[in-house]
Amino acid sequence: MRKWMILGPVMGVVAGLDAVTFYLALDYAGRFLLGYLGGYHIPKPIGDGGDPGSAGFDRPWAIPLVVCAGALVSAWLVARFAPEAEGHGTDAAIEAVHTNPRAVRARAIVVKTISSALTIGAGGSAGREGPAAQISAGIGSLLTKWLILSDDDGRILVSLGIGSGIGAIFGAPLGGAVLAASILYRRDFEYKVLIPGFITSAVAFGVFGSILGFDPLFGYVADDYRFSHPLELGWFVVLGAVAALFGYLYARIFYGTVALTERLPGGKVIKPALGGLAVGLLALLLPPVLASGYGWAHKATAADTLMQIPLWMVLILPLAKIVATSLSIGTGGSGGIFGPGVVIGAFVGAAVWRLGEVFHLPGIPDTPGVFVVVGMMACFGGVAHAPLAVMIMVAEMTGSFTVVPCALVAVGVSYLLINLTDATMYRAQRLDRESAAAERTN
């Protein structure tokens, strides 16, 4: 513990500063590429400023071109300078923990920052957590080399980088600490990471928040919700099952796109650019597929703003966001898959609420907030095989710990159903600590 009382805060400060740097790079890229060149401002959640966004496209013809160009330049940078920066980033960080905690190159950190900012800033459907995880894990890898740490300590330090980077940029320090301990395995928990993770994530969150603010990303969504009747849990069994279905589809379509892309002709630069062009064209019909989509997910949390979105769009958005993310990142682009998973889950919850409201089904709450928040938790928590971590993170991101009784049911149902399959969003995960140790021994 004396060792991690020193290394933990050091890693936390670095992870917090890395998260600030990437956040600002992403913000400036978005303002210039989509805002100035594309003439479109995406909606933003409260934690990102609360901008309601543009009412429509000023220059619709520019949107596909901007998304394509951002993907093209991003892919060229990755192919030319750091091929390991391709994709969502979290798998690369997890793989470094399991195989070689000294493996991440310094240039990969720089390239990942720039390429992801270009991809997402230009409108590619991706999240900011994967790059934040890979960047901070990369710093942990460099520290492992510079401080000549043992392999075991290096694995802990890189894991701390993953959790603190994600926790800082999402304003979810407790969730980040638990994620660092749970994301490495599909059916196990790295207990040695947990206590140092508390220290590291708290420091990273303090650094990030002192510069960019401590407000939850989505504000306080369902903080007034109170679980009052056991029969309400029936709705969350349904929501958990639907969330599991879309989590399964997310993994299958995403990695199906990865496999198909590898078989198609064309280079590492052209294929992500074509994927970006397809996303830009899809966005002309469905603007919420652009960039992270957090602002649209925030709109779904309140009845007045959700009702302004056509019902057909709410129903189709979960699948459309899966397709857009697969085209943006599954073709070789650079960006995270956690963020889109949260948005997919948000609209799964919103769709269930809208259908219940249309047909006047019993037990539907007056506002969709609790369904949206629990949908976020259940959809990605199951398919990421990190149900507790994702549940805590979303509760912190939405200021909604009062939904936990309902979330326990929905997330549990989703996780149990996903475990009946081999679907996972993080293919670098090992089954458990025993199998990972046996692999290192061999």
TrEMBL record:
Q: Does the keyword Transmembrane apply?
A: yes
Annotated protein name in UniProt: Voltage gated chloride channel family protein
CDD domains in the record, alphabetically? Voltage_gated_ClC (cd00400)
Q: Where in the cell is it found?
A: Membrane
Naming one, the record's GO cellular component terms include: chloride channel complex
What membrane topology term does the record carry?
A: Multi-pass membrane protein
Which InterPro entries does the entry link to? Cl-channel_core, ClC, ClC-type_chloride_channel
What are the TM regions of this chain, as residue ranges? 6-26, 61-79, 156-181, 193-213, 233-251, 272-297, 309-330, 337-356, 368-394, 401-418
Which molecular function terms from Gene Ontology are attached?
chloride channel activity
Instruction: Please give the PANTHER family that the UniProt record associates with this protein.
Output: CHLORIDE CHANNEL PROTEIN CLC-E (PTHR43427:SF6)
One short Pfam name that applies is Voltage_CLC
Q: Please provide the record's keywords in A-Z order.
A: Chloride, Chloride channel, Ion channel, Ion transport, Membrane, Transmembrane, Transmembrane helix, Transport
